[in-house]
Amino acid sequence: MNDRPQRELKRSLGLAAVILYGVGDILGAGIYALVGKIAGIAGSASWLAFGIALAVASLTALSYAELGSRFPRSGGESFFCQRAFRSPSFGLFIGWLVLTSGIVSLATVARAFAGYLIEIVAVSASPTVQFVCMLLFLATLAGINFWGIEQSSKTNIVCTMIEATGLLLVIAVGIAYLADPVPAQAARVAAEGRWPPWSAIGQAAAVAFFAFIGFEDMVNVSEEMRSPKRDLPVAILTAVAIAGTVYIAVVWVAIKVVPPSELAASQAPLVTVVRYAAPAIPPWVFTAIALFAVANTALLNFIMASRLLYGMSHQRLVPRWLGEVHGRTNTPYHAIAVVFTAALVLACSGSLVFLAGTTSVLLLTVFLSVNVALVVVKHREPVDHGFRIPTLIPIVAAAANAVLICFVPLKSLLSGSVVMAIGIGILVVERIRRKKQGDAQ
Hints:
Elements: H1 15-27, H2 30-42, H3 46-70, H4 76-85, H5 88-121, H6 127-147, H7 149-178, H8 183-191, H9 198-208, H10 228-257, H11 260-265, H12 269-277, H13 283-314, H14 333-347, H15 352-356, H16 359-380, H17 392-406, H18 410-440
């Protein structure tokens, strides 16, 4: 066994950098495709679906803010649950759910990036070309990640600015168009202005919740923040508020400019919005912006997954070598290599479609567990300092997470159950291993 003291991660992130990290992670690539799906479900009430999703995400974000302030360390959800329930096995299970969703998301985004890139360069979309694009893309992200969190943060800031500019442009051209809309187009929009049933709004809110996923990743860089106890709660809440405001504005503009049915049928709904609102802007501009959005989402998923492995290794939930930090860059290079390999394999796998649908139910299950964990921690370890929220908030947040799970499609629930079953299998093997080690001693 290696008893050498492990190097610590470099603390180089300030409040502004972490807020931009969170905004970039939350905005991500989802909104560029999600608007159409939500419009197809909730129609003219799409903005309300996003508002409900924002409310649920904000409640859980408050729980993350308090837990992240109490326990500022990598490992995030797995550590919170292990601490609350005093169960390394449950911590491992939660870590497995988060890790799986993060790596599958990274693999999915790698495929999306390859598709966008192939469209821009206009080459044949053969399996070999797709593989090369995904390999180079993931290798580039791994290199940025290995280079250091400060460099990764700078890359994230650039990508966040570009993708945010794209969304703000949609809002700006949409509002300008609505000041003097084309009568025929306005009539088509008005014809689809019927209010949908509340069941449709609930289903749309469950889908829209995807767009807010990302704030939970912020706790996994807390060990690289200069003042995590002070800055992390502010960063989480500010990032969610900024992203939510932008989302609701984008969705409101989109359903006012383009009929919901047309948005739902579009492969690039925001490009469709811009085409109607500002036809002088070339379509390739938004394709290029989407590339940056996809790349940013992938980079932040990469950072989250590698830092989660690092944190779990310190809790002895995964092998210790996954927590080793490189002597020159102070980054968890073994964890980065494992995430790169797993994401590349998944990106090339036909099982991506099956696994991608599990993300919502997995993360909503994690969020429910984290909210319950905060209730337990507040009862067992009361404090009178630092960032604190009323106990009622995590209780309401847990209930809201459970309600949204009920609106997730059945196929996603089933595929999520498969991933959970695999996690339970890993948990059983880990318990057997620990028992054998105890008997040997």
